[in-house]
Amino acid sequence: MGVGLVVGVWIARYLGPEKFGLLNYSIAIVAMFGPISSFGLNGIVVRDLVKETVNSRDILGTTFILQIIGGLLTFVLGIITINYTRENNDLAKLVVMIFGFAMVFKATEVVKYWYESQVKSKFIVLVENGIFLIFASIKVILILSQATLLQFAWITFIEGLTIGIGLLCLYAWHFRDIKKWRFKYIQAKELLSNGWPMILSGLAVMIYMRIDQIILGQLLGDESVGIYTAAVRISEVWYFIPTAIISSVFPSILAIKKNNESLYLIRLQKLYNLMVLLALFVAVPMTFFSGWIIQILFGSAYSEAGPVLAIHIWSSVFVFLGLASGSGYLAENLQKLAFYRTLLGAIINVATNFFLIPIIGILGAAIGTLLAQISAAYLFDFLHPKTKIHFFMKTKSIFSFYKINF
Prior knowledge:
Blueprint: H1 2-32, H2 34-38, H3 42-51, H4 56-85, H5 90-102, H6 110-117, H7 121-144, H8 149-175, H9 185-219, H10 222-236, H11 240-259, H12 261-298, H13 305-312, H14 315-331, H15 335-360, H16 362-377, H17 388-399
Helix pairs in contact: 1-4, 1-5, 1-7, 1-9, 1-10, 3-6, 4-5, 4-9, 5-8, 6-7, 7-8, 9-10, 9-15, 9-16, 10-13, 11-12, 11-14, 12-13, 12-14, 12-17, 13-16, 14-16, 15-16
């Protein structure tokens, strides 16, 4: 993540706010439909692999085919959207096509689900990080050779393809049974019946995670998107922390849930406690040093990103909690409620962005994201009897962090 941040900052400085904004506007268009590429199956497949090791090949093969179809759907939807929002911008259309087709390679992430279910993510980390470091070096070479924006898009496409091949090779090296993967219609039907709420939930998440960049691009132009993205990059770089922790502990939480409900709640409370402490450890110093950090990393061209970062960084508290409670929702089979909570966040983010951006510019986008995260990841839990316990557990973590005992 550190290398990614350095290279990302270097690319931002090299391209400048306007071109960097166009690049990220195009990424946001594709990312908004990203959950369709996985059909919302990420956590569901991990859960099923933990429960049913006998049918693992059917689960893997079926998921692989479904996610290829999902990647193609994402590609088509991205093209339709960019043709509507940037009718006369051929460069934006081409960049969206490149990033959109790269989503097909996401089907290989089925390998990740297997290793996560076995709590062996270290192998995935080694493959992905190794490939990432190679391509980070290539991107540095592109900067030094004065490459175009389009060349950066193509190298990202090739990186995605290489990671996909790497994951398949890793699995084949360990198990040599990819040829035994089978697509089963009954399995697909079951997976999709469980996954559709997560697809809708994922779409809602991506809307309130990315819609700010799209609205900024439409209302204020690509330069504003570039400045805003600079702040968001610094803010979101920390999200790997809860993702890594939750990916590792989720299988054990599932196992505990089956046997001991009270112990499950104790472990979940400790997870919430940890999330809040980690988020505050990031948010507090970032608030005070945001302007200095932006100036040092991105330069004076991105100076307006400082106040944006000071606001946006507080979303991390609720992002961390939301990711943790997502595992709880899945363990308790509350996928539909997961969709409703993210839908609430998406609605609030769209509404606040359209209202605030014309008044206070890019700060409005940061405030909209923060309000959306508070609503979806925290306040929603109070509205339903099945999730109210999560609200009180999160409240305890937020307001009693200074006396938490692990």
